[in-house]
């Protein structure tokens, strides 16, 4: 991308751009002018395009928007646009640091004179179009900053993951197990101990489980098939559910680790 000088004509161009924007659309910033209305326009155009292509609507994610603004300011400071600059965390780390929880994350960047032309640029670029229309993502954070007479834009897309405590994870899994008529034991410690290891059953003075299931996933909407089959066998009447920190999880992506002990 051609770099811009700092001549007087660029100052006039930026002044003209700001004059055309509603006063409520901009906020002064040390690295340019944040244009919230342009971000809102990009969201509206994205959701219209997704509807036309059979993809679900994107919800606004404040944490992603903060991550996008962080990178957008960096683009303004650097001049040429890129997905990462020297010394900057990668996309996943930026999103995690901003408070986002996700199992998938993608990013579009652009520079252009208007939000409409930036959207058109993304739609006409195969990689950017794939990100914008992906049915695998459900949230977005957008940032637009006006500088040097143009708009710098960043869109961060994610497949969001709920932020759950260990107790909340256990409650979610227990509710899925109860459908099978299995009672849930109040004591979670044996299952939590089993969760933290990959082999065998933890030592306990109580009854030994007849079956142990461990798994790790970013979604807790359904039980693993082997566990479902065991629950349907009629062999078991009680279950203990425990959660622990995910193991071997790559980078900043969110996942939950669970163990279920059947008795």
Topology:
Elements: H1 8-20, E1 26-29, E2 32-35, H2 36-52, E3 59-60, H3 62-78, H4 91-98, E4 102-112, H5 115-123, H6 126-133, E5 139-147, E6 150-160, H7 166-178, E7 183-184, H8 189-195, E8 211-217, H9 225-232, E9 238-244, E10 256-262
Describe the global form.
elongated
H-E order: HEEHEHHEHHEEHEHEHEE
Report the uncertain regions.
1-29
By helix and strand content, what is the structural category? alpha+beta
Count of helical regions: 9
The percent range for helix content is 25-40%
N-end to C-end Cα span: 65 Å
Strand content: 15-25%
| Total number of strands | 10
- Computed over alpha carbons, the radius of gyration is 24 Å
What can be said about the biggest beta sheet? 6 strands, mixed
Mean pLDDT across the residues is 87
